[in-house]
UniProtKB/TrEMBL annotation:
Residues 131-197 form the DOT1 domain. Pfam families: DOT1. GO terms for molecular function: histone H3K79 methyltransferase activity. Keywords: Methyltransferase, S-adenosyl-L-methionine, Transferase. This is Histone methylation protein DOT1-like protein. It comes from Duganella callida. The keyword S-adenosyl-L-methionine applies. The keyword Transferase applies. GO terms for biological process: methylation.
Length: 357
């Protein structure tokens, strides 16, 4: 595509919808209803027997125990230092005072840090980075769907891996004529909030449709927020086109997807594994978009790269799956990098001095 759309740089004024005169009012009310959530309360994890996060919490407790004792700070930095390539920021967010680890004492049997191997710490840091929450603002999502729309055919399945509170999934279902929009989220509380927000949106949709002066029929021509023309089924069947799944993204098969969305700004250490998964499962021609981190895999061709400040605050890349099915992962590791360890340690010690002043 030779010409980029004119992208927005801020959210436009959006007065509350007080009357439903036409379907456009319903769309606007629904889009307004799913905004926000960036600063939602993050509950602590629960120490529930059998929880898939118990192993994560064990290592988190061990790291936090060292953080809380200044005499153990040198040892904490010693254990983190070999893994800076997979560490997001200076210190892991989960072990900080406002992190999601339970504030209670660890249960009997949890190991101290000196009993935990380096490979376990590395795996923990990769998982910890993937739990960090982020989302696009409304104008960024409007930019995003304007950017990908020329590459999409009507219908198809959109999948958001790491869907959080569900805003991207619900925006996709409203904005473009996808047959199905699916969100996959690992954390139970985020999955629950997405379902609750979707239920409220669907209740509002029913109220708005009931209040229209002229009833919306399945055959009524309908202009979507993206400008694409559809029909009344788009709103009437909205609930049937949205689904949220509570699961690990690596355990959900995406082979039926036509567009996979990844807000991958904190997924750097996972990008090799994600790329290999998508290369195995996606059909030729399927699209994948990422933020911040590109896909460096021979099964994907870059269609367009949008610089920071165009579509979103960070870079956005759009890829197409090419070539035959890949049964083996790509051999080359593409995301190995090592920040300057001395600079990192200086930042951490400054942060610790402030934290324990």
């Amino acid at each position: 595509m030779s010409n980029d759309p004119i992208f927005r740089t801020a959210n436009r004024p959006a007065p509350p919808v007080t009357r439903f005169r036409q379907p456009a009012d319903v769309f606007e009310a629904l889009l307004q209803s799913i905004q926000g959530g960036e600063s939602h309360a993050r509950p602590t994890f629960e120490l529930t027997p059998g929880s898939p996060l118990l192993a994560f919490m064990e290592i988190g407790y061990a790291l936090r125990a060292c953080l809380e004792k200044p005499e153990r700070h040198d040892y904490l930095l010693h254990r983190l230092r070999p893994h800076l390539g997979v560490l997001i920021g200076t210190l892991p967010a989960s072990i900080m005072p406002l992190g999601m680890l339970p504030k209670l004492a660890p249960p009997p049997g949890f190991r101290p840090l000196n009993a935990i191997a380096d490979d376990e710490i590395r795996a923990w840091l990769i998982q910890e980075g993937s739990l960090i929450y982020g989302e696009m603002q409304r104008f960024e999502l409007e930019n995003y769907f304007d950017a990908v729309r020329p590459y999409l055919s009507p219908g198809g399945v959109m999948v958001d891996l790491g869907s959080g509170l569900g805003k991207v999934v619900m925006t996709a279902a409203l904005t473009l004529p996808f047959a199905r929009c699916i969100g996959v989220e690992l954390l139970s509380y985020r999955h629950r909030l997405a379902q609750e927000r979707c239920a409220r949106m669907l209740t509002l949709a029913a109220q708005g449709l009931a209040a229209l002066p002229e009833p919306l029929t399945p055959e009524t021509p309908l202009s979507l927020p993206s400008g694409v023309v559809a029909d009344g089924r788009h709103l009437l069947d909205l609930g049937a086109r949205i689904a949220f799944i509570e699961s690990d993204m690596f355990k959900v098969d995406v082979r039926g997807a036509s567009l996979v969305f990844l807000y991958s700004t904190c997924f750097g250490p996972l990008m090799d594994a994600i790329s290999n998964k998508l290369a195995r499962e996606l059909a030729e021609g399927a699209l994948v978009s990422t933020t911040t981190f590109p896909i460096r895999h021979p099964a994907f061709r870059l269609l367009h790269a949008f610089a920071p400040g165009q579509v979103s605050w960070t870079s956005v890349m759009l890829y197409q799956r090419i070539g035959p099915v890949m049964t083996e992962p790509a051999a080359e590791e593409r995301y190995l990098h090592q920040p300057d360890a001395d600079e990192w340690e200086a930042r951490v010690r400054q942060e610790l001095a402030t934290l324990f002043a």
